[in-house]
Specification:
The chain is an alpha/beta fold. It has four domains: 165 residues, Rossmann fold; 117 residues, Hect, E3 ligase catalytic domain fold; 121 residues, no CATH class; 58 residues. Strands 2-1-3-4 form a four-stranded parallel sheet, sandwiched between helices. Strands 9-15-16 form a three-stranded mixed sheet, with helices on one face. The protein is extended, with a radius of gyration of 33 Å. The chain starts with 9 loop residues before the first helix and ends in an 8-residue tail after the last strand.
């Protein structure tokens, strides 16, 4: 079976370095644009420039040219440039705007700092209609404008609003059909002997045959590793799974992250016989089962690594050394993972379960300490103690949510008050319209005083776009009572709260003494504020 490989061209492999692209002429133009920008009034709309490039070729527009063009567009429209979100070597197909390092930070955390988002061309900004629709919805929600230099996208124009409607409709149709297409594709794929999509099972890799179609071939290193493991398991004195892992990692046939459970799962996969398989979830245990074709026989998709007899004998050998482990919990065996850490080595504490004489035992152990350190028994008791300590410190804190407040209405009201005060001040000048009679003068003075009081009472911050923290009426104690340990663990992990577990050996006693130290950041109140995810995946 022929195998061909593809190589990238030099242009495809090149990553863009922006520092080397600014010429003397570019810098001179940039200086002129910034001088013109300095003359703008203080209330000029604030523009954020979005610059993106995946790879630099002769056909692409360099980030320098994109930035300069957008700065000229901002000058022509009277925008003040407040920032440049430059995401280089980033694919618009793979990474949506809100997940890019620069632009994502502006969209998620710095929305009050700009009014309009400028980009050079649609394909420089997004390449998926659903992504563009999501950004447009975000702009409408937060009162931002979206302007393209080379496309008819401007949320303040009639043509731009029509474009939004069309894009939104197309995106909705595409999103509604996505799940159907994907499910249909996978159902069709399972019935085919050829390899169409998906990640190959360990032991195989994709290649192209002579006709250019994708096929599965045996990976040589994986083949050696699997065959060695089978021979080691079939010996008179079989090697343990832990021993197999050490040998494979030391030989360089597997990566250092290989675990015994992963190795056992690989050895038990019936795909090693060359058959198509699918995941079979049974009680939280990850297993694979053979897919049968229309003739009720297994579908072969590759040459076998093990024959059926070899595979079955391997399973029998593994069964003889199998330990009955408790069923895997869907949410994991360890609660407060990445919150509970070892005092000595600083790594995460994890639950390890063992069985002896029909009884099950659970211990909290770490990674770096020898043999996991002194095992901390009774994880549930440690969980309860952690919950009590957290409730004492943070339970009464109010649950605050971050909300976005626009200052446009407050700015209009401030401008109205200032214009009204100016109007009455002009009328009260000698010879003005309100000085003709005593009555009109007194009424005008009273009205102007009321307007001045309203202007003085207005909060200056209300005229600015800003984030505000709003109490939702609950305390974190109530929030955690409703959501349980899972909700508390998620909040502690988000906030950065840690709990150090120190285990001290006690003479004559098997179980060590456990000391817990809760570590809470100084700015915990700010971190506790809940932030709505405007870009949560809908599909």
């Amino acid at each position: 079976m022929g195998k061909r490989t593809r190589t990238q061209t030099a242009a495809e492999q090149k990553q863009y370095a922006v520092e080397a692209e600014w010429t003397t002429a570019d810098l001179a133009l940039l200086k002129e644009l910034k001088k013109a920008e300095a003359l703008l009034p203080d209330d000029a709309p604030r523009a954020l420039l979005s610059v993106r490039l995946s790879v630099l070729t002769d056909d692409t527009t360099s980030p320098v040219r994109q930035e300069l063009d957008l700065r000229m567009l901002a000058r022509d429209r009277g925008y003040r440039v407040v920032g440049v979100a430059s995401d280089l070597n980033v694919s618009a197909t793979k990474v949506p705007p809100w997940k890019r390092k620069e632009l994502g930070d502006w969209l998620n955390n710095r929305a009050p700092e700009f009014d309009v988002l400028l980009f050079w061309k649609l394909d420089r900004f997004v390449r998926r209609l659903t992504d563009l629709s999501t950004v447009i919805d975000w702009c409408l929600k937060y009162g931002k404008n979206l302007v393209s230099k080379n496309d008819s996208i401007d949320l303040t124009t009639t043509a731009g609003k029509i474009m939004v409607t069309i894009i939104g409709g197309i995106a909705e149709i595409e999103a509604a059909n996505t799940s159907t297409r994907v499910a249909s594709l996978w159902d069709y794929t399972k019935t085919q002997s050829g390899w169409l999509v998906g990640k190959p099972t360990y032991g195989y890799e994709t290649a192209q045959n002579e006709s250019g179609r994708a096929v599965l071939v045996i990976n040589e290193d994986a083949y050696k590793a699997l065959q060695w493991c089978r021979n080691a398991a079939m010996r008179a004195k079989p090697a343990s799974a832990r021993r197999m892992v050490r040998v494979l990692v030391r030989a360089g046939l597997c990566g250092p992250g290989l675990t015994t459970s992963t190795l056992i799962r690989r050895l038990r996969n019936p795909a090693l016989m060359g058959y198509r398989v699918e995941e079979d979830k049974n009680g939280g245990v990850r297993r694979s089962k053979i897919v049968l074709g229309s003739n009720a026989k297994p579908i072969r998709v590759a040459d076998p690594i093990f024959t059926e007899d070899e595979f079955n004998s391997l399973q029998s050998a593994l069964d003889q050394r199998r330990r009955d482990q408790p069923a895997r919990k869907p949410d994991g065996a360890t609660k407060f993972l990445r919150v509970l850490i070892c005092h000595d080595c600083g790594t995460n504490m994890r639950v390890h379960k063992t069985g002896y004489n029909g009884r099950s035992y659970a211990y909290l152990r770490c990674y770096e300490c020898k043999s996991g350190g002194q095992g901390a028994p009774h994880p549930e008791a440690i969980y309860r103690k952690l919950v009590d300590d957290v409730l004492k410190v943070l339970g009464d804190e109010p649950v605050m949510t971050r909300e976005y407040r626009q200052g446009a209405e407050a700015r209009k009201e401030q401008q109205r008050l200032e214009q009204s005060i100016s109007y009455y001040m002009t009328g009260l000048e000698p010879g003005g319209r309100f000085t003709k009679t005593r009555f009109t003068k007194e009424q005008a003075e009273k009205t102007m005083d009321d307007l001045i009081k309203q202007l003085e009472a207005a909060d200056p911050e209300s005229t600015q776009d800003r984030w505000v923290a709003v109490h939702n009426g609950k305390s974190f104690r109530e929030r955690w009572e409703e959501g349980g340990m899972e909700a508390m663990a998620a909040d502690l992990l988000r906030v950065g709260v840690k709990c150090k577990i120190k285990r001290t050996k006690v003479k004559g006693i098997r179980a060590p003494h456990i000391h817990m130290k809760l570590m809470i950041p100084k700015d915990v109140r700010g971190r506790l504020i809940l932030k709505e995810d405007d870009f949560a995946e809908a599909f």
